[in-house]
Amino acid sequence: MIGLLGSTHCLGMCGGISASLSMALPVGPGYRWRQSVMLWLFNGGRIASYVLLATLIALISTRASEHWLALGPLLRSLAGLLLILMGLAIGQWWQGIRHIERIGAPIWRRLSPATRRLLPVKRPRQALLLGALWGWLPCGLVYSTLGWAALQPTVGSAALTMLAFGLGPLPSMLATGYAASQFQRLRQHPAVRRLAGALMIGFGIWTLPLTG
Asked: Got the DSSP string for 44-68?
């Protein structure tokens, strides 16, 4: 649900690069097939990077399980607050989440040159690698879901949490690659953004320990 409701934010962060995959391909016989392969590989790489992040966090947490359990209420509060901030950003009420997203900026500065070298994407391997690197783009929505993943009892459940999150915006990501202009108009519609933002805020409030 976090991934699905955050689709409007995901399209803002990743929709442009997803649409560019289609634009870089020469139109001709087999165009739709090549387009589908590129879009699926890009998104597969993106989701794989989320699963890797969750796995790394879960491995750290299981090695310090007693201390980690004591931090449970704090981590859940942090995840809830991040979801609320994300909802405010999606609804275009307040963009304070951008300050949180700056945490990952140093890592992204090291990875972004590699993404530029993969453009324009003309081969399947490029699409997969680009998606895997793009998954490390600083994103408050990813960080809030990682907070959920950190609370999971096993490495496998943490990885599955991020897998489910990555699949949430997949329909929107694929659709914006197939029909970029139409989805761009829908994404920018104020009513769509406010509804998604309000639902995200509600989910964040429910996540807080006092309400859950």
From this structure: HHHHHHHHHHHHHHHHHHHHTHHHH
- CB contact at 8 A, 41 and 131: yes
Residue 196 and residue 91 in contact, taking contact as beta carbons nearer than 8 Å: yes
Dihedral sign (CA 48, 51, 57, 60): negative
Amino acid at 84: I
Mean pLDDT of 71-90: 82
Q: Show the tokens assigned to 132.
A: 């895997």
- CA torsion sign, 154 to 156 to 159 to 163? negative
Residue 1 per-residue DSSP state? -
What one-letter code names the amino acid at 88? L
Is the pLDDT confidence value at 120 over 90?
no
